[in-house]
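Chapter review: from sequence to fold.
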Amino acid sequence: MPTQSDLHIDSLLSNLSIAYMNEPSSYIADRVFPVVLSSKQSDKYAKYEKYAWFRDEAQKRAPLTESAGGDYGMDTPGTFFCDEYSFHKDYADADIDNADAVFNLDEDSTQFTTEKLKIKRERNWSANYFVVDIWGTTLKGQTDTPGAGEYGVWDASGSTPIKDVMAAKPLIRLATGLEPNTLVVSERVHMCLTEHTDVLDRYKYTQAGIITEQLLAKVFEVQNYYVAKAVYATANEGAATQTMAYIADQYGALLVYANPRPSKRRPSGGYTFRWNRPRYNGASGERLQTTIKKWYEQKIAGTRIEASIFEDMRLVSSACGVFFKDAIALGRTITS
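The token string follows.
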């Protein structure tokens, strides 16, 4: 009588495969600050002298006299240079001939290479913006009695995260005249806020106990509330031990004014300058656009898929932001 192994030889399913990568919503680098498309790899952008626009200089005017007048100056222009970030994946001719139906080597390679660029972009964003001592104000969380420039960590009993964020808003308004519209938090800080009595008390009579990012935006009175939760592998390929870590500082939070779109005479905490190369990208100007190239490499008898992007993330106005250092106690885990 035939056995089970005689009747069926295991093979790969053609409609299912497993790969691990970040959810698209985990990446925030292209959502917090606008993308400025440039026709050149490097250039300058104009910066007006700030205080001239705030001075009270209008005067009463008597008949047949000249009006009061004045002028504004220009600061040193800002500059950018869009470095190229790229990554490729090769596959051999033999791989094409031997691949089972579940594999589409072009699709797999394209997804693999673009994911590498997303991780690099997210790490660049965190290194450029989600750090201490670069914004106009850095506030430090304290587990004991807060002093000047400090506040109580938000996972401590009696802490007041809503009050702390509201108190930070005038710091940005006083320096820029702008109302901060964006709050970026780590996933650990986000989990703390969803459990905080300050937040729960606002919605305990109107919601079903689920605190969403949209509700937190309303609580903190900002247009945008983003959670930095993308992760990456910290060890090089081939290392004996492979570990995962969050890309962004998991104890921080950033309150900032982010211009909804690039415009004249309007500051923003940051901008991503991106070289839009019509020869490769066309004229669509899509925010997430990445150049994907495919060609045959004779010397390795294989096909190469390469993803590439030219960009530069710039801190445009440090006065537009307040960074909360150690918003929760160091060592807090995601499950505590």
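Two observations follow directly from the output. The chain has a mean pLDDT of 87. The longest helix spans residues 105-129.
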